[in-house]
Specification:
By secondary structure, the protein is α/β, with parallel strands linked by helices. The protein is 49% helix and 14% strand. Strands 10-9-8-11-12-13-18-22-21 form a nine-stranded mixed sheet, with helices on both faces. A five-stranded mixed sheet has the order 2-1-5-6-7, sandwiched between helices. A two-stranded antiparallel sheet has the order 3-4. A hairpin with a 5-residue loop joins strand 21 and strand 22 (587-591).
Length: 647
């Protein structure tokens, strides 16, 4: 047994057969195939064969064949990786060989009156035998290498999988798994929506049918994993497949896009776990981005908060619109450095300027506007962490309100065409300082635009607001938190079993912001159809399932209680607001009553004074006067609401 193991180890170390061995084997096959062809054609009657110089013909066939192989380089392929291209190349080699000898036969017989080198019947059989044996032996060697490798590596991990998709991608996935070096995969069956494939076999594996057959496949074959292997699949169908797999307690994986395959070949390690973004993602919203490109092209565009999750994606989408210059403004040094180099790696044509600054610095912001003179401003800089701002309300006012005012005022002073303010659904019926501060900023931006419209000219900066809910994977969102908790083995903490949130992807949110910047005429608050709200508890359970764990068994879920300022559900409109349609059914304009610019401006100035000199209580009490719908929830500032109700 030890001797066998040693031989297998030596065979394993022989990763690539030397070329001289391949050439020798090919020569032997040509010689044997042509010899056998003579015996078969003449039915092993040696008397008839004596009429021909058999061994001369066999040697000519072999030598001529080696000469053709020298030109086609058919011997240079790595035998253990033999594939369709190698088979085609060998076929061409034998075709050229047969054609060459046929031409020689014709010349000898018709020009030199000499007998054929090899009868055409023998040549045909020899060519067929040679082609079949050359390809077959390479496939056998490939299989032998595969078996030796598996024995020598001793695959300890075994996995049973099912593949959803019986098309080209599914077959390639099957082949990639079978060749895997580390894990022994068993394909339990294919699933496919094409009913004509049901009951048929691919690579010896049964096609069970569509999603309705998944439960039967699981019952009969008990796969551990389901791999979604369809290159083009709509988001709704993908979500249905994932949901059904979760119900059946199967871990789900998916293949990457073709452009991420290595040399056009799917690698097993590229197959990734399905993540929650795959499950929550929706059909992409078709926005008229050609309008965005035509508007921003050759312009100077400034993005504040450019290092944040929204700001960085905005910057990348803007860069693709070919502006003359894109200005990245943020106070986070490391994150700003990262987005700058990410844009430079994209090799965009726009000039990139980086500004390390704080929107709270009025003089600094004014100076930067004076120097760079942007045509468009996308203001995404903000403090967004609800419990943190509940603890530090002065910082919320300084950044979210005063910072927005500084940016909006500078935009007006330096003749910016459009100023797009990124707001949040937490500004609707706010229950926390963060939401109230964003609502006050909305009020200022809208009032400023109305004040300018009421003047002698409409040739002024257009102020536009966008309002949307949570974005998947953004800084501070619940999804990265859950993902980290699951990686650490739990527990996963959910604040309340009934809490719900709206979700959208970061690219979708940024497309909305850009579209608003193009279609807005000033004064609008754009809201986005966020779909149905999602229960955070269900979200946590699905994320645990998708990681291959079981809620309550492998990973516990704990309820921590609502955090300061947090509410159970978010809204995109308050009770007094209505919406108007736009050119896109998913984008609406909120009909929000705007206040007096002079009044709101003076009130914000007083807020700034209170943020500098007053107490947190004084500041929040005044904020509640400015935003009457602001009612604190799970917060120390609830006492202010009680005092007001007792009056």
């Amino acid at each position: 047994m030890e001797a066998l193991t040693e031989k297998l180890s030596r065979a394993k170390r022989l990763n690539v057969l030397p070329r001289w061995i391949i050439v020798s084997l090919d020569a032997f096959i040509l010689f044997s195939a042509s010899s056998l062809a003579f015996f078969i054609v003449f039915n092993f009657e040696f008397s008839k064969m004596q009429e021909f110089e058999v061994w001369r013909a066999v040697l000519i066939f072999t030598i001529f064949g080696l000469g053709v192989m020298f030109f086609t380089k058919s011997y240079e392929g790595i035998v253990r990786h033999t594939g369709m291209r190698d088979g085609v190349l060998l076929g061409k080699t034998i075709f050229f060989l047969a054609s060459g000898i046929s031409l020689t036969n014709i010349l000898l017989f018709n020009v030199f009156m000499q007998p054929y080198v090899m009868p055409f019947s023998v040549l045909l059989v020899a060519a067929i035998f040679s082609s079949v044996i050359l390809i077959l032996y390479r496939l056998l060697v490939r299989d032998l290498f595969y078996r030796i490798r598996n024995i020598n590596q001793g695959k300890k991990v075994e996995k049973r999988v099912a593949i959803y998709g019986a098309g080209e991608a599914g077959i390639l996935t099957h082949k990639a798994l079978i060749k895997d070096n580390q894990i022994k995969y068993t394909n339990c069956g294919f699933l496919d929506d094409a009913q004509d494939k049901k009951g048929k076999f691919i690579e010896g594996v049964k096609v069970f049918g569509d999603l309705e057959e998944l439960s039967q496949l699981v019952k009969e074959q008990q796969p551990d994993e389901l791999i979604i292997s369809i290159l083009e699949i709509c988001q709704e169908r993908k979500r249905e497949i994932i949901e059904r797999a979760i119900e059946l307690d199967i871990q789900v994986f998916t293949i990457p896009p073709v452009n991420q395959w290595v040399s056009g070949v799917l690698q097993p390690n590229a197959i990734r776990e399905v993540n929650i973004e795959d499950l929550l993602g929706r059909k992409s919203i078709s926005l008229k981005n050609n309008r965005v490109t035509s508007e921003l092209k050759s312009s100077v565009v400034l993005v504040s908060g450019a290092a944040g999750s929204i700001g960085s994606e905005l910057s990348m989408q803007i860069a693709r619109a070919d502006p003359q210059k894109i200005i990245l403004l943020d106070k986070s040094e490391s994150a700003l450095y990262d987005i700058e180099h990410q844009l430079r790696r994209m090799r965009v044509s726009a000039k990139i300027e980086v500004i390390l600054a704080d929107v709270k610095d009025k003089e600094g912001i004014d100076n930067f506007f004076r120097i760079y003179r942007p045509d468009f401003v996308f203001h995404a800089a903000a403090y967004k962490h609800v419990p943190m701002l509940e603890k530090y309300p002065k910082e919320a006012i300084r950044c979210n309100v005063i910072g927005t005012k500084n940016m909006a005022d500078a935009a007006l002073k330096y003749n910016v065409k459009k100023f797009v303010f990124v707001s949040t659904d937490k500004a609707v019926n706010p229950t926390n300082v963060m939401g109230a501060s964003k609502r006050l900023a909305e009020m200022y931006v809208q009032a400023l635009n109305q004040y300018l419209d009421s003047g002698d000219t409409n040739q002024h900066t257009k102020y536009i607001t966008t309002r949307f809910g949570n974005v998947l994977g953004s800084n501070g969102s619940v999804i990265p938190l859950f993902r980290e908790q699951i990686m650490l083995g739990g527990p996963v903490t959910v604040t309340d079993p009934n809490i719900t949130r709206y979700f959208m992807t970061i690219p979708e949110a940024c497309e909305l912001v850009l579209e608003a910047g193009v279609m807005g005429n000033g004064g609008e608050i754009y809201v986005f159809d966020m779909g149905k709200p999602i229960k955070i508890l269900d979200l946590a359970k699905k994320m645990i399932h998708l990681s291959g764990k079981k809620p309550g068994v492998d990973i516990e879920i704990e309820f921590s209680g609502l955090r300061e300022g947090e509410k159970l559900f978010e809204e995109l409109l308050n009770d007094t607001e209505s919406v108007l349609p736009t050119h896109h059914e998913k984008i609406k304009i909120a009909q929000v009553a705007s206040g007096s610019y002079q009044n709101i401006s003076s009130c914000i100035n007083l807020c700034q004074t209170l943020a500098e000199e007053g107490s947190d209580w004084d500041l929040v009490a005044y904020l509640k006067q400015l935003v009457p719908e602001y009612i604190s929830h799970v917060s120390r500032f609830e006492a202010l609401d009680h005092l007001e109700s007792e009056k």
